[in-house]
């Protein structure tokens, strides 16, 4: 196209503007045509030989990406394109440039992502799975006279957690933060049978907040003979103050502790995730009272949706101030 436009009388600058390319590209194409004729316009990359990034190269790259640089003997903690090129070359493949490595990463679907921090349970795998199975069975076969609750606490920050949202190209929505952060805590108990939530709020995550929740659940289920709570190993759940209150309540409250660092065994974690996704993430409340009112409204609407389901037993509201 560059040669044709220049041959028709256009200048090289005019041809470059119409073709949306650099003037040097048009000059090079015309020069190649003048020197070699039509053969000079053939893509010379066809004679480059075998491709460097072939299936074997990609397979080696995938094996490298499954580990960390330190596992491969490097001192660096994260991969770069330059380091990946050196490691793949050390494993017997051809050496490539960082730019070629970038295209190779795209060809295998690799992306630059943040790792997910996790804490491993110190228990043996068999002991951990056995304990989780026991708690799962207790929740699955819960009876009305002995309901089972999943208990946990949630932090609510006045400074919003920033999360992804749909936006138009070239636009980035702003979330104004109050600056001085404030915290409130919500302690909740999720009925494993009905899916309803009982919750209380407090300014501090202490034993008093957990005791308040236990009493709220006890008042909400006055006919229950025994209340079972599946919960984590937080210090507030086994403190001296908590034990004294549970002794005063007799054998009506039974605590079943999850293995350490096993949030996936607590179903109420999904409820807190929904609260953050629908209320606290990217929120624009300027006062903590307004934000907590939004949290209450969401949880009340959720309870109303649970009780309206024909598959669930209808029960009264479980909110505690």
From TrEMBL:
Cross-referenced SUPFAM superfamilies: Homeodomain-like
GO MF: nucleic acid binding
Tc1-like transposase DDE domain location: 148-291
Pfam family of the protein (one): DDE_3
Protein name per UniProt: IS630 family transposase
Organism (species): Corallococcus exiguus
High-level lineage: Bacteria, Pseudomonadati, Myxococcota, Myxococcia, Myxococcales
């Amino acid at each position: 196209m560059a040669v044709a436009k220049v041959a028709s009388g256009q200048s090289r600058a005019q041809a470059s503007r119409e073709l949306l390319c650099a003037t040097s590209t048009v000059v090079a194409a015309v020069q190649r045509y003048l020197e070699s004729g039509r053969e000079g316009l053939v893509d010379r990359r066809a004679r480059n030989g075998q491709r460097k990034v072939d299936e074997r190269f990609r397979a080696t790259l995938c094996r490298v990406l499954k580990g960390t640089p330190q596992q491969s003997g490097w001192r660096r903690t994260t991969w770069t394109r330059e380091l990946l090129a050196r490691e793949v070359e050390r494993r017997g493949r051809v050496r490539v440039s960082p730019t070629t490595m970038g295209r190779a990463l795209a060809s295998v679907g690799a992306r630059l992502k943040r790792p997910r921090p996790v804490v491993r349970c110190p228990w043996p795998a068999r002991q951990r799975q056995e304990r989780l199975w026991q708690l799962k069975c207790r929740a699955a076969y819960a009876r009305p006279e002995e309901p089972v609750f999943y208990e946990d606490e949630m932090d609510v920050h006045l400074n919003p957690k920033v999360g992804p949202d749909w936006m138009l190209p070239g636009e980035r929505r702003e979330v104004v933060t109050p600056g001085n952060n404030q915290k409130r805590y919500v302690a909740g108990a999720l009925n494993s049978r009905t899916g309803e939530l009982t919750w209380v709020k407090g300014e501090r995550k202490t034993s008093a907040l957990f005791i308040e929740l236990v009493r709220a659940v006890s008042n909400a289920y006055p006919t229950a003979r025994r209340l079972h709570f599946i919960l984590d190993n937080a210090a507030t759940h086994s403190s001296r103050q908590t034990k004294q209150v549970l002794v005063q309540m007799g054998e009506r409250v039974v605590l079943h502790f999850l293995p350490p660092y096993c949030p996936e065994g607590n179903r109420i974690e999904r409820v807190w995730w929904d609260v953050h996704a629908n209320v606290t993430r990217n929120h624009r409340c300027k006062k903590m009272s307004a934000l907590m009112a939004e949290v209450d409204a969401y949880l009340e609407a959720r309870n109303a949706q649970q009780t309206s389901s024909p598959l669930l037993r209808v029960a009264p509201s479980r909110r505690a101030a």
